[in-house]
Queue: 2 jobs
Job 1
Amino acid sequence: MLSKDVLIEIGFTFEVDSGDPEQWTWRCGDTTSTVEFLKEDFAVLDAAHHAAAHLELHCCANCGKVHTEAMLKDIVDLALRVDAGDTVPSGECQSCGAFCHPMVRTGIKDSPWDQFQQVVIASYNNGDHLAQDPADVRNVGDTLLTFLLLELSEKEDCDSVSTAIDRLNSAISQLEKVRDAFQEKAAG
Ligand SMILES: [Zn+2]
């Protein structure tokens, strides 16, 4: 997922309406978040989703800087710098001049998983390897991953980033209770 710093570099802004509770929104050009978020982190997560699904992004092979189409510089001496058969780079890095290539899009359209499941897979240890087929989610070989993919899915009415976070918090508190029970047992 793109960090807040990267999102700001590619043109996102984050604003807070400091009431009680706080309300965070993001903006990118003419696009704004469709809801207000209670925490900045939630707004950043939603903005990162939007960027991954809707923007053509390019990454510098040398320094890792993320560019939008508009930020890329034209390539100087392309013919001299690219060998036959190499992938043609999309442009030059604004910062260091090395080649940039398109980033793999993680948008909703390109994945059989919905937007919430995609976050699960991207952040879970080895998730992209384990989770191959949405139709076979119960047999991914890792029951905790299965739980997350089922619980944090649009099918199960997970309809927003904050719903996902609520569900995770309740699972975490359940896990903590079970761990505490074992710790008490260990303490004898
Ligand atoms: Zn660079």
Job 2
Amino acid sequence: MPYEQERASRIGHVQTALSPAISEAMERWQTPALEVGDPAHITERLTSLDSLNRDDRPDPTFAIAFDGSNQEVEARPGYPSVRVGYIQIAGVYVDILKFLGANSSGLVNARQLERAQITQTVNSVLPGSNVFLKGVTGRDSWRAEFDRSFTESEITDFGNSFSLTDALMTIHGKPGAPASSLTLSKCPACGASAQRVTASGGVCATPDCMEKLYPTDVLRGYEEFTEDGENALTLTRAMNMAERLLLISYIDGFYRVEPRMLSQGIFITDGPLAVYGPAAPMKSKFLEYWTQLCVAMDRRDIAPPLLVGIEKSGRFADHARVIERHIPNGHVMMLDTPYINRYVTNQKPDHYYGKDEFYGRRFIYKTSTGESLVVTVPRVPGGHPYEKPRRDSAGDFIEVPSEKYESYPTLRVTLEALDLMQTQLYPNAVIPVALAHSASSLPLGTGRSVLTLLAQRSLRMPQDSVGLSRFKPPKYR
Ligand SMILES: [Zn+2]
């Protein structure tokens, strides 16, 4: 990673594009097509939303959308390798009925929208390169501070305070019951396998090691930490986990306090329902938590919550833009694995796409007003959203359970709700996501120097600044 960046900074972009070596290579290489010839491979995968089954549930009355932003700043002039990372994540609660009132004219009334939403933000500061806790290496400083930021980031909307660490323990336990301990696949210091830690940490069992261990070590963010250089990727991964665990904090809060309310909520994350990088094994924990939640709610005869990830960028969002003119409004497209391998990711036909990262499956939906949404939705009552492609005796691909609409009974209501909450103001986005995006945005431009100033100040007074604004709980009924 750092090598690529170094090279990029030495060659200017303009010169690079003009380089004969590059134009020569581009003639040899293929890139994703920008035109679709015969669209039969698209149209045969389309289904009108109206024809899908609608599971038995009340209409959603509220949405909570989550988003985050992060930035790494150089904290000391003349010593640019001293870096500090900032993360801000936000959850925005939107009262859908009030929102629809604000949206009645087709235009959004900002004041009414303001009344329909409640915002919660969580901020953390993480050390970057050349920032240390006393007597501790850079990597171990990062581990300690990451753990601290999870412990100190808490919500109090459901009575007792509930931290991101509690959410992490909960996905290792079950709904309403955080695990008392979790197992690290290895000790970050000596590599010894299967180390048990509680929410407050632990110590490596290897006598020669005795390293202090943290529950957040299970996310293995430290593996990508760079002692000398930028840590943009490490910071993004940390932010993504914080976002997803903040969502779990809310789902689990409703489950503990008022499970019936869960059925009336739509929970929206920015990006797919997936975990990338060293933390990818966590996708199994999200999947297990989700399955147990569905089963527990079904036992009480309550529909599961609506859970959806929306992607605004990336190769699937790009692909959706290329093919969207072949999708009629109000239609959803099943992206089966052979299609993904052939048309999106350029993999071999039998490649097992999505095996390691996903706890929801992607669909493309064209809204009633012609915007394309790329969404991921989990299976109900659980199960892997992607399976290895299978062929029949004639060698043709067969439809696997994860590629049947019956496996996604929440899909129709989810897409109907997103359709209601889209807006002309933000193309290919829905209002709660746009609100969460702006609530979580760190100040850019001039704000960068504000962050630098903060970093410098906090370096002189080495305390981390986890801030939490008050959040009023949604009113039940
Ligand atoms: Zn150890």
